[in-house]
């Protein structure tokens, strides 16, 4: 499908990683890491909120790169009543949960073959970023990228989008951002980017197709 008449042509895609290009199932992760505490949907929901704090609080500081792993484990233990060993078990299990999502990674390859500029903008602590770069060759299909833990900025703060614009040489109206969190999508749109809310692979494919990037 070609881009709609009268719209600025999009030639750049900026990807989020977790739950977009990599599997992210925090409740499954918690159940596997804390089997004595997570026994059903109710306890899974409880520990999801307690541990990750809606990806705010301690975890946001980990994402931002201002808290190290051992300190994070201690903070979570003191705040939740988990032992430090239990908190550390969850933290250390995250890289194994972050497995590539084959369908959306296929879109990265397809866009790469078409010569579309591609970047990533991910809330990702530095230890996990190191793991993903080391383990998955497709990351090299991106022209460049920003991990929050390396620049000490996180989405949806406007500052990390401004840094991406400067570092990647983005033209906002020619850029589409793909992310699974509505607040991050809203933040991108507030800067004049186009954006796709990644609720599932079909939504990503449809959004890219409607912008004329796949056909």
CATH architecture of the largest domain: 3-Layer(aba) Sandwich
CATH topology of the largest domain: Rossmann fold
Oligomer: single chain
Label the structural class.
alpha/beta
Record field, number of beta strands: 5
Return the CATH class of the largest domain.
Answer: Alpha Beta
Strand order of the main beta sheet, please?
A: 3-2-1-4-5
Organism: Aquincola tertiaricarbonis
InterPro entries: HAD-like_sf, HAD-SF_hydro_IA, HAD_sf, PGP-like_dom2
Protein name: HAD family phosphatase
Pfam families: Hydrolase (PF00702)
Please provide a brief summary of the model.
The chain has 215 residues and is α/β, with parallel strands linked by helices. Helices cover 51% and strands 11% of the residues. The chain folds into 2 domains: 12-23 and 99-210, 3-Layer(aba) Sandwich (Rossmann fold); 26-97.
Task: Show the helix and strand layout.
Blueprint: E1 12-15, H1 26-33, H2 41-52, H3 57-64, H4 69-80, H5 84-97, H6 102-113, E2 117-122, H7 126-135, E3 144-147, H8 148-151, H9 158-168, E4 175-179, H10 182-190, E5 194-197, H11 201-210
Parallel strand pairs: 1-2, 1-4, 2-3, 4-5
Structure overview:
This is HAD family phosphatase. It comes from Aquincola tertiaricarbonis. InterPro entries: HAD-like_sf, HAD-SF_hydro_IA, HAD_sf, PGP-like_dom2. The protein has 215 residues and is α/β, with parallel strands linked by helices. It folds into two domains: 12-23 and 99-210, Rossmann fold (3-Layer(aba) Sandwich); 26-97. 51% of the residues lie in helices and 11% in strands. The protein is built from eleven helices and five strands. It has helices at residues 26-33, 41-52, 57-64, 69-80, 84-97, 102-113, 126-135, 148-151, 158-168, 182-190, 201-210; strands at 12-15, 117-122, 144-147, 175-179, 194-197. The protein has a five-stranded parallel sheet with strand order 3-2-1-4-5, sandwiched between helices. Helix 1 (26-33) crosses helix 2 and helix 1 crosses helix 5 (84-97). The longest helix has 14 residues, at 84-97. The N and C termini lie close together (5 Å). Mean pLDDT is 95; it is low at 1-6.
């Amino acid at each position: 499908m070609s881009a709609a008449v009268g719209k600025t042509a999009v030639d750049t895609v900026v990807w989020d990683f977790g739950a977009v290009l990599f599997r992210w199932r925090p409740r499954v992760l918690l159940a596997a890491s804390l089997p004595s505490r997570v026994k059903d949907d109710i306890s899974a929901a409880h520990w999801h909120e307690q541990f990750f704090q809606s990806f705010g609080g301690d975890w946001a500081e980990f994402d931002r790169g201002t808290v190290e792993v051992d300190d994070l484990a201690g903070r979570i233990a003191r705040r939740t009543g988990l032992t430090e060993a239990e908190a550390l078990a969850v933290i250390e299990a995250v890289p194994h949960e972050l497995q590539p999502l084959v369908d959306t990674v296929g879109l990265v390859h397809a866009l790469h073959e078409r010569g579309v500029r591609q970047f990533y903008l991910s809330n990702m602590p530095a230890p996990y970023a190191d793991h993903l770069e080391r383990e998955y060759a497709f990351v090299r299909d991106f022209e460049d990228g920003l991990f929050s833990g390396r620049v000490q900025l996180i989405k949806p703060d406007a500052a990390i989008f401004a840094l991406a614009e400067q570092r990647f040489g983005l033209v906002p109206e020619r850029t589409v951002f793909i992310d699974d969190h509505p607040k991050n999508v809203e933040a991108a749109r507030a800067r004049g980017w186009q954006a796709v809310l990644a609720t599932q692979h079909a939504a990503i494919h449809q959004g890219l197709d409607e912008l004329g990037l796949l056909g």
